[in-house]
Design goal:
705 residues; alpha+beta; ten-stranded mixed beta sheet; seven-stranded mixed beta sheet; 29 strands; 38% strand; flat
Length: 705
């Protein structure tokens, strides 16, 4: 690197330096921001540090909008101690505080609203009228002042006392308090919650750590870190080319890289260790600070229908009933004969229903086993750490140098037809080869060139991510000194033909040739990189080496990069050809005679193929003639049928003894005679057509080439 570059870089870096914070400046147990790492993933890593001894409860305040990210990423590092819990107020602490209170936050807006919300509570007043009783209501009264002086609003309080209903004016009372200490405590708690909610944009986390039992009194360092959303830091570059980088010659340029970043964390950075990381990490958010409840289906309570059974009048066993009926018959018979009757034996008692077995108790429950998660460490990024502590106020913007070194640079021209169809772009090829310390993040680049010892602005360019060992082409202007003319010529070549089982298969090669005519600059040689578009399914067949120096061209996502050396004042031609093979299949029997004759006369086919197709064309022509004759006879037959239908309709309206009726009958007779002849001719023609088709099919099936 040149001395000028080093001096400039050092001068710009001086304002970034700040004296590191001394350990004595921080009280014991206080968390202080020590490290900041900003990522191109749109997040920042913030690490706080504290010196503690014994068990400690560390407090950390974060913005409300950062709590989700903090809960997702917070990590505690304590090499000798243990990690306890991390707790913080709920998402809506004010609503939570009022959840079990008899009034709402809105009721604290005025004394009238609070008293109306506390109806039934016992209160005591002091002043000109000391009253004790339970609140009934508080109503507004508007009193007109004399002489048009306006109105006065007063609040009348109604109390139910031991003496009965009493009223007083709230504004005339010295004091009013709740007699129940529990109600007064609730009011004090609510007011404290309202005061605490004034800082609702921030949440205070409490991190609890435990000291090691063996050395509980020793002082140790605890670090608390998390990842939250942060502004994207931007990389900018300045590249200064020496006068030696001319034409197609190569050289080196002095490269300076800077990171532009902002402190929007909500806190000042005081003597922090600042780093920026370039990569493409996976980052996302999750609402961990919100309470979620499972949406359970509601099952209706089973309510049985009302049943009103009739009163039971008793029942007799079926076998006893049969015996009783038989006994009654015998008794009637005995009575009639004068014989004594016998009493029926009482039925045996019914067995008592069996009682169900008592419940044996629930089975013992066992906690489900957990499956540990698998973890993988990834480091797909480039890290830039500033060597000195940095101080930056909240809301401030800063530039931090990230690189300063010499980098190989080659001047060339890049022709992109879609960007500029007539002229290439002046460009540089930057190589981050073996001399590159690290990869370079993407950013904008401002190009300067030294002319006569002074630097001049040349243009701006965009630098994509440049890993170590790779190169990038940066376009910064239009090269008006070089002109490119482009023409395209499509062609088609039949490379193979086969005939088997009546199917003609042709292998066709489509070719797209593009010719570039490059008129060079008058005063100096140029190396022009032609970006020729890539096409899916097509293959580059020309050039095979010549213009590209005998090596395969470079490939981008959608183009071939073909280098062409263009001497000063000369015109160079570059032909680029892409080819695509494809297969066409035709059923010979279904092809028209004209299609078969066209392929039979093609000089691209070998003589055996042309002879076979010429024979097929003759047979296909014969089939076409026979089919045409069948079609003509069928059309004539259909036309006579329509004419006869018309004549029959006319006959229905003509008198039978008229001359027109007789002529119509005669004409219909002639048509019937013609229809008989057509039927015979059509039968013969159809047979001949079938014979011709069979002949064609047999001949085609037997052909092979």
């Amino acid at each position: 690197m040149s001395g000028i570059t080093k001096a400039a870089l050092f001068t710009l870096a001086v304002p970034l330096l700040a004296a590191p914070a001394l350990a004595a400046d921080q009280p014991p147990g206080a968390l202080a921001l020590k490290r900041v790492l900003l990522s191109t993933g749109g997040v920042g890593y913030f690490e706080h540090e504290a010196r503690v001894s014994g068990d400690a409860a560390l407090t950390l305040e974060v913005r409300r909008d950062q709590v989700d990210d903090v809960l997702k990423s917070i990590v505690v590092y304590d090499d000798r101690g243990g990690i306890g819990t991390v707790d913080l107020p709920g998402q809506e602490p004010l609503e939570t505080a009022f959840r079990e209170l008899p009034f709402t936050p809105d009721d604290l807006a005025s004394p009238t609203a609070l008293l109306n919300a506390m109806k039934g509570a016992e209160v005591q007043t002091s002043g000109s009228r000391a009253v004790s009783g339970r609140l009934l209501s508080v109503t507004e009264e508007h009193t007109q002042l004399p002489n048009g002086g306006g109105t006065v609003t007063r609040n009348r309080v109604s109390l139910m006392t031991a003496e009965g209903l009493r009223q007083l004016v709230l504004e005339e009372t010295d004091s009013l308090r709740f007699a129940d200490p529990r109600v007064q405590a609730q009011l004090d708690s609510a007011l404290a919650a309202v005061a605490g909610a004034a800082g609702k944009e921030r949440r205070r986390l409490t991190i609890r750590t435990t000291a090691p039992q063996a050395d509980a009194g020793a002082e140790r360092t605890v670090r608390v870190a998390y990842v939250v959303a942060a502004p994207l830091w931007k990389a900018t570059y300045r590249l200064t080319l020496p006068e030696s980088v001319k034409g197609a010659e190569g050289g080196t340029g002095d490269l300076q890289g800077w990171a532009v970043l902002e402190n929007l964390s909500g806190d000042d950075w005081k003597g922090v260790e600042l780093s920026v990381a370039s990569g493409n990490p996976v980052t996302f958010r999750q609402a961990l600070y919100s309470a979620y409840f499972v949406n359970r289906p509601e099952v209706p309570v089973e309510v049985l229908g009302r049943v009103l059974p009739p009163p039971d009048e008793g029942a007799v066993a079926a076998d006893v009933m049969a015996k009783a009926q038989d006994s009654a018959v015998r008794s009637r018979a005995a009575a009639e004969s004068g014989a004594p009757t016998a009493m029926a034996a009482p039925p045996p008692p019914a067995p008592a229903p069996a009682m169900s077995a008592p419940f044996a108790g629930a089975m013992p429950q066992r906690a489900a086993e957990t499956t540990p998660a698998e973890s993988t460490e990834a480091t797909a990024q480039v890290l830039f750490r500033y060597p000195q502590p940095v101080t930056l106020a909240n809301g401030g913007t800063m530039m931090m140098p990230i690189t300063a070194r010499a980098i190989p640079a080659e001047r060339l021209s890049l022709y992109q037809p879609n960007t500029q169809p007539r002229h290439p772009l002046a460009a540089l090829r930057l190589s981050n080869g073996d001399s590159g310390e690290t990869g370079l993040p993407p950013g904008v680049l401002t190009l300067y060139e030294r002319l006569g010892g002074a630097a001049a602005y040349v243009g701006d360019a965009r630098l994509a991510t440049l890993p170590a060992g790779e190169s990038r082409i940066l376009s910064f202007a239009v090269d008006q000194a070089v002109t490119v003319d482009r023409s395209e010529q499509p062609s088609r070549t039949l490379s193979r033909a086969t005939l088997a089982d009546g199917v003609l298969q042709l292998t066709v090669t489509d070719r797209q040739t593009t010719t570039y005519r490059i008129a060079g600059a008058a005063g100096e040689d140029r190396t022009v990189i032609v970006e020729h578009p890539r096409r899916s399914g097509w293959e580059l067949v020309q050039p095979t080496g010549g213009a590209t120096g005998g090596t395969a061209p470079d490939l981008t996502a959608d183009a071939y990069r073909l280098p062409v050396a263009v001497p000063a004042g000369q015109t160079v031609t570059l032909a680029v050809a892409l080819e695509r093979p494809r297969i066409e299949r035709f059923g010979i029997s279904e092809m028209s005679p004209e299609q078969v004759r066209a392929y039979a006369s093609s000089t691209e086919l070998p003589p055996p193929a042309r002879e076979a197709l010429a024979k097929v064309a003759t047979l296909r022509g014969a089939v076409a003639d026979k089919e045409r004759r069948v079609g003509e006879l069928e059309r004539e037959q259909a036309e006579i049928g329509k004419e006869q239908e018309r004549l029959r309709q006319n006959l229905a309206t003509l008198p039978r003894d008229s001359d027109l009726f007789k002529r119509t009958i005669a004409k219909m007779g002639e048509q019937e005679t013609r229809l008989d002849g057509l039927s015979r001719e059509l039968t013969t023609a159809r047979k001949e057509a079938d014979t011709a088709r069979n002949t064609l099919r047999d001949q085609v099936r037997g052909m092979t080439f």
